[in-house]
Specification:
Length: 304
């Protein structure tokens, strides 16, 4: 009976593959365009990452990552948040996926190897506990690199928001000098060589080469990096691109609003750290009091 079931499953799989080969499923234009847009954004992010880190262009890790990412793309798994975090960090998805898999593999093998060594030394072998530890270590190895990248990306986003506020002030000053919006954006982006300003400048140069408007390029960069301030600025420039005075007033107001919000966030973090320091001081005081009272308590109770 088992052989019949296995044979039927194999035959059914072969018939399904034959049907899919002879009569491929019809592709919808919308899905095809979406895949092309996704591939273009992936290629842009990969080019930026390889420009920042030339070592990402070659290597066994990159080849392994490409083999692992290709099935994910074919299945429609986009990994949008992870791609945004890696884009702002200047890393490729292939290297990140390969690193996660390698760390998970190392975490899976480490308990098993340790259990085998202990079995050789003691002569006893315990399978359930090492197996459970291997599964837990493999799961942690898959998740930990992504969590670390997300934490680093949030720090980079805070720095990028600070740069966007300065960029808005520079654009407003250029507009006050009589320049147009595209010229003001280009001149403001050329005043600094910081990593965030370089990303903005590269986006503007790419827009000029591809015939796009500068604000659409900034909006795409904001979508790619998931920075709301950059998308809001692009929306404001797109709405009032023909009226320089309103643009200048809007950008100045947005820059002031961003600075007030950054100041409020800094004050909130300072308050949280003050509270944590207060708790630490209270714990130190409690420990010191226990250290002082303990000899008296021991003497009263008559214990050694």
């Amino acid at each position: 009976m088992t052989a019949v079931i296995v044979a039927g499953a194999v035959a059914g799989t072969g018939i399904l593959v034959l049907i899919l080969t002879l009569v491929p499923p019809r592709t919808l234009p919308a899905s095809t365009l979406a895949q092309l847009d996704l591939q273009r954004s992936q290629q842009r992010a990969r080019a930026t990452a390889e420009q920042l880190d030339p070592r990402a262009r070659v290597g066994l890790r990159r080849d392994l990552g490409m083999r692992l990412v290709r099935p994910l793309n074919s299945l429609g798994v986009e990994l949008g948040p992870v791609r945004s975090d890696l884009a702002i960090l200047g890393r490729t998805l292939e290297n990140h996926v390969a690193t996660s898999v390698l760390v998970a593999t190392a975490g899976f093998l480490a308990p098993l190897v340790l259990a085998a060594v202990l079995a050789l030394l003691t002569g006893t072998l315990s399978i359930p506990l090492p197996a459970a530890l291997s599964v837990a270590a493999a799961a942690a190895g898959l998740v930990v690199p992504t969590l670390v990248a997300h934490a680093h990306a949030e720090g980079r986003r805070r720095d990028f928001r600070h740069v966007v506020g300065s960029f808005l002030d520079l654009v407003a000053m250029s507009l006050a000098g009589g320049r147009g919006v595209p010229e003001a954006l280009q001149s403001a982006a050329a005043l600094s060589d910081g990593w965030a300003m370089v990303r903005i400048r590269n986006a503007l140069q790419s827009a000029r080469l591809h015939g796009q408007t500068p604000w659409s390029a900034l909006g795409e960069l904001g979508d790619e990096l998931r920075i709301d301030e950059l998308r809001d600025m692009a929306s404001a420039l797109a709405l009032v691109a023909e009226d320089g005075a309103k643009v200048r007033e809007s950008l100045s107001a947005r820059a002031n609003s961003m600075r007030r919000r950054e100041l409020a966030e800094a004050e909130g973090k300072a308050g949280e750290r003050s509270q944590s320091m207060l708790v630490a001081q209270l714990l130190l005081c409690v420990g010191f009091l226990v250290f002082l009272i303990y000899p008296a308590i021991v003497k009263v109770l008559g214990t050694d």
